[in-house]
Amino acid sequence: MTILAVEGLKHIYRGHDGDTTALAGVDLRVQPGEFVAVIGRNGSGKSTLAKHFNAILLPSGGQVLVGGLDTRDEALLWHVRQMVGMVFQHPDNQIVATIVEEDVAFGPENLGVPTLEIIQRVDEALRQVGMESLRGHAPHLLSGGQKQRVAIAGVLAMRPRVIVLDEATAMLDPIGRAEVMNTILRLNKEQQMTAVLITHHMDEAVRADRVVVIDEGHVVLSGSPAEVFCQIELLESLGLDVPLATKLGIELERSGLPMPQHVLTAAQLVDELCLLS
Amino acid sequence: MPIKLEQVSFVYAAGTPFERHALKDINLTLADGEFIGIIGQTGSGKSTLVQMFNGLLKPTSGTVTVNNLVTTAKGVKLKGLRQEVGLVFQFAEHQLFAETVAADVAFGPENQGVPKAEIAARVDSALLTVGLPLDIKQRSPFELSGGQMRRAAIAGVLAMNPKVLILDEPTAGLDPRGRDEILSRIRELQRERGITVILVSHSMEDVARLVDRLIVMHEGQILHDASPREVFAHGAGLKAIGLGVPQATEVLQLLRQRGWSVPEVALTLEEARQAIVAAYHERRERA
Question: What is the predicted ipTM?
Fold first, then answer.
């Protein structure tokens, strides 16, 4: 069964200077276990879309079904929120406790989970993100990547079915980004956790099963990373980028090298080049 | 406005269990008009280092001299210095506060005592420099998109006409086009006005194509201080400290491992393309 079903979703922000349409009719279905990356320029509507996945925002038109539950039904709000965990850009804005394990326990405590089970869930969540050894630490002394992994553990402890990361790697250094990406990939591949990753980093998007491109409140492109990133002109006209390896492969083809197909990573490009000669 | 650091060390929370040596014995001279990149893992001391450059932090030991003014001397007035050394913090949009974009950008020059007529000209020029249309001047900065807010905040620092401009991760969270636009405008500004620009970045791509000189920080010390081409030749060492090389360089290094005779470093896609095309034809001729 489809875990996230977005149908004709509209979102209008009401402001002093008039209304702004952030989403103008988005259709999107995410299947259980899928890893979907959402890309789009600043102001394209991608963060607005993310906030509909767990009813932080409610549709101005159309509907969002999370595990079959309509986000507009107030009686179902807690079920929806429990199913979809969100991780945001600024780790410091989402950490509430003074000790790592207490922070991870905050979610299940609010769900009324019995104490013994909370302990089990916290243990498991910290293990899943590789933070067990720092469980007694103060979160503010952790690195950015570690803080984001604590935030992910806090979400996992609520046993969601979907994890949504809204530019969760934007403020991290290369090693922090790699830590967070590897954590997401492991959760997705080993535990079939459905993941939605909103990002400006194309090298992160290429690791997803599917890439969805949003512009001016519409889905303009959706497909495998290979299908999406070969559309260089379209992506560039949308203010986006393609992975350097893809662009370099195409430039080499234009320079007369018989490149057989589009590549997404440096390793793939090098393999193809070595096959040529 | 040259900046000189001599034997600079900085300790956070000295004498507590959280004592941390953020900078250890730094010696560094920044000449006028340089475009300098600073890279390093989170916690490597980058942000502490740049706050030394305008006296926002004073070293625990050692001396910092900016334009012949020793910031560490007793009773020294740093207000003038802070106006000449502009610092754009990470997530600069958090510093926006005024009711309109124009008032926000004008705040710095007003405090400098710049005449009213000139302030208006400076506001316009700063907004155009960061690529914002002048018709947003009367809007609230909080109604702008994330990318526009970041630009408005950078414009606020530019309006003070700093001689040294320090940017701490100015493009984090911006889309690729916004990132490229802001960085190329800063590069133009540096060339036109001859100001010193210091760019703290997590993006190896950005520093590779922009800066003349690259400083690598690691555990409070300077690990490398050379041209990007020289620095990125140390690929394995950079990876060992949680950094990396530009992807163009990565491709060449992988090819070298497979026996291709290509240079060690490419700073841009175009450089990598040329190197690969040349090596490809050379291999074909030999085969």
Answer: 0.83
